[in-house]
Design a protein that fits this description.
Two copies of one chain form a homodimer. Chain A is an alpha+beta fold. Chain A contains nine helices and twelve strands. In chain A, the strands form two sheets. A seven-stranded mixed β-sheet of chain A has the order 7-9-6-10-8-11-12, sandwiched between helices. A five-stranded mixed β-sheet of chain A has the order 1-2-5-3-4. In chain A, helix 4 (88-103) links the parallel strand 3 (73-83) and strand 4. In chain A, helix 3 (52-69) runs parallel beside helix 4 (88-103). The interface between A and B is large, with 62 and 63 residues.
């Protein structure tokens, strides 16, 4: 049972519409609220050697990234922290507050509890113009698909490429990029935290169209051999770039450098260089049980 | 180091104003958003024998209770669930959804992860009229203090009084009461999840005035001897009643039955029958470390 199967199993309880996006959307007068929550555990989500400050930074960053994926302006993050050692709280909150100061929103408080394994749940809200939150659904055949930057840095750091350590440990949520992309008329968007290919499969689930990737157009990071760099870009987790689709006629006026990596197709499938590509990437699994 | 000391230690990082209430408050046009998060663990927060459905219900109830304490109308709850056994998710989400259906808001999605010990973080948002969220601060000398119902039921159930088991396992958040109290002009409010006396000390921290309790006016539950019933009312945890203060001239027109249990005084202290009462109740502690 993987995480995505699990989520499908509760869709009928709370409604499919509430399970497909990075955030829920709540109308509020002349704005929409987007609302997200993310759970992180020390052993599975925080690479070894992270400082408490970096753990706090990353906890805020994952939630700001969810808000960014909807094109939202972050307003506030709350932290629920299960602490193994209570003195760690100060560093964690300090890192989260620094990430908000840099990228948007404020840390508005939270809850604490004792836990054998450090557990941080970051919940955040942001705002968009009414009806303008960008969803995973909305891709249209003929659109271009794009990403905001080269992928694979975080995974490369895990394999020992020290020049990418900061990308892994202090990831930058693409908040300003998300807002610009939303204003540019993207038709669908999400963040790529579990890898490019698995993210395209997530998009597939929310859409009736499909996605065709052109490997020669995928930007690769410097350092690894090209074949390894492509593998990191396709399947590496831990990056915070945004994946979006946009009509061709709007693709030239986004205002920030982006990389167009493929097209939206009419067939409900994910293709790489016109061939099938397996759904693979970083996933929480419960197979051992 | 207790939970409240820990929270004080991060106040200087994120600002004192953000640490004193059950919810943070964010202006949003013609409304204010109130925003809260609560972390619950199986071993410390869920009494043994609870069903997954009841665990979900309680997780939603604690957050709805925080929203109720601000006088807010609940809009949405998100659940972050660290699962020991993935199949538990369905029951948990079902219980949370039922609590929202009954008391307000909807379950709008969430996040899941694997965890050795079941961990549920419930985050919620609700709305109040602008500037009308009720805070812990705002008590004024001369106000009456009141509660929405007899206290001690949950703790009584833990001591073996089976007639109160449902109060313990399926607690009812006082959402409609909170909204009525806010509309009636209460000056301060909070929910009493950790016991009456410790809650009055929490109010004390947010105010420059003090609180004087009259034990004869505290409503007692049926079952235990009066002395034990008073102890349960003063120090028992797990109840979901609201504690509020209100000017005397408004106290007669609340529209629901409430119990006035004392007065707000000019001295910065908590008194029981004119004598000092120690700050005691349910608290997470990290003393063992």
């Amino acid at each position: 049972l993987d995480e995505r199967s699990l989520i499908r199993s509760v869709m009928e309880v709370i409604g499919r519409e509430n399970c497909l996006d990075d955030c829920a959307v709540i109308p509020c007068g002349d704005r929409d609220i987007v609302f997200s929550t993310d759970m992180l555990h020390e052993t599975t989500d925080f690479p070894g050697g992270m400082s408490d400050w970096q753990i706090g930074w990353m906890s805020a960053a994952v939630t700001l990234s969810d808000l960014a994926a909807m094109g939202a302006d972050p307003a506030m993050i709350l932290l629920a922290v299960g602490l193994d050692v209570p003195e760690r709280l100060r560093g964690i909150v300090g890192g989260a507050a620094a990430c908000c100061t840099r990228h948007g929103g404020v840390v508005g408080g939270g809850d604490t509890d004792h836990h054998n394994e450090l557990t941080v749940v970051s919940s955040g809200i942001g705002f968009t113009a009414p009806g303008r939150a960008v969803r995973r659904s909305g891709s249209r055949p003929g659109d271009l698909s794009g990403i905001t930057g080269p992928l694979g840095r975080a995974e490369a750091a895990l394999t020992g490429l020290h020049q990418y350590e900061r990308d892994l440990l202090e990831p930058r949520p693409r908040v300003s990029e998300g807002k610009l992309l939303a204003a540019s008329g993207v038709t669908s968007m999400m963040d790529i935290s579990d890898g490019l290919v698995i993210s395209l499969y997530d998009m597939l689930e929310a859409n009736s169209c499909g996605y065709s990737l052109d490997s020669e157009r995928i930007p690769l990071i410097a350092g690894p051999e090209p074949e390894e760099a492509l593998r990191l870009a396709l399947y590496g987790g831990g990056d915070f770039e945004l994946l979006f689709t946009i009509p061709k006629e709007k693709a030239g006026a986004i205002g920030i450098p982006v990389f167009f990596i493929g097209t939206v197709t009419g067939e409900h499938e994910v293709l790489l260089d016109a061939g099938a590509v397996k759904r693979k990437g970083y996933e929480h699994r419960w197979d051992e049980m």
